[in-house]
Amino acid sequence: MDFVSPVLDVASLICNCVGQRAVKVRRLPQNLNSLRSAMEELKNLNEDVTERVEREESLEKNRTHVVDRWFQRAEAMEKEVNELLAKCDEEIQKKCLGTYCPRNCRATYKLAKIVQEKMDAVAALQTEGNNFQEVAVPLRFSQVIEMPLEKPVGLDSPFHEVWRLLQDEQVGTIGIYGMGDVGKTTLLKKINNKFLTPNNNFDIVIWVVISKPTNLRKIQETLLSRLQIPDDRWKNRSEDEMAAEIYRVLKTKKFVLLLDDIWEPFNLLQVGIPL
């Protein structure tokens, strides 16, 4: 009996271990259905969070980094789960569950463990997505970006004249023209930097270099970037759609737009600039 008891203990331990694995394997089809359902719920939640984000972004807000990362993880999870489901379906088609072939069952047991892990991961994503206190924060852009500028010479008179006009509520557009190298860009830079002083009454000052040939899309990209509008809201969009996005933001702002190096006329409204 002294020899039999240890053998029985080992046999009992082995049977218990095998039994637990067998249960996991038998439950695989049921767990796969549960995983499919959980993934559908996560996709629905993803759509709900997306709608929340889009509503907030329409109010001149940026999605938070936490939410952006959650979207990325949810997208990656959907891909991983789809691949896993396909692999499990293929394993079940081999009738491993009926034959209990040791090699096949070992592989199926590993899949069953992964399925359980994915179910837990999907549940964690659902919990996180359901508990977002905020999904977006107000846009934060620098009111003025200082331009490098050497001490200007002989520009005091035109500077004071332009600055006076900028304070006039009846003036909407000011043109500075002349031959090359007479100081137009320097004058614009001085005006730009003047807005660094407190209490200038403008929400934002925007500097755009036009050059030639005039490229409306490039101008729009500069404006969208300066306004810190997320790339995914305008990348690969048409010029009309980009103009609408620019107009939506600027129409609520008191802004100064400084356009340098203009060589030919172009339509500001077509770019998205409110007139």
From TrEMBL:
<dbReference type="InterPro" id="IPR002182">
    <property type="entry name" value="NB-ARC"/>
</dbReference>
<feature type="domain" description="NB-ARC">
    <location>
        <begin position="160"/>
        <end position="274"/>
    </location>
</feature>
<dbReference type="InterPro" id="IPR027417">
    <property type="entry name" value="P-loop_NTPase"/>
</dbReference>
<feature type="coiled-coil region">
    <location>
        <begin position="25"/>
        <end position="94"/>
    </location>
</feature>
<dbReference type="InterPro" id="IPR050905">
    <property type="entry name" value="Plant_NBS-LRR"/>
</dbReference>
<dbReference type="GO" id="GO:0043531">
    <property type="term" value="F:ADP binding"/>
</dbReference>
<keyword id="KW-0175">Coiled coil</keyword>
<protein>
    <submittedName>
        <fullName>Putative disease resistance protein</fullName>
    </submittedName>
</protein>
<dbReference type="GO" id="GO:0006952">
    <property type="term" value="P:defense response"/>
</dbReference>
<keyword id="KW-0611">Plant defense</keyword>
<dbReference type="Pfam" id="PF00931">
    <property type="entry name" value="NB-ARC"/>
</dbReference>
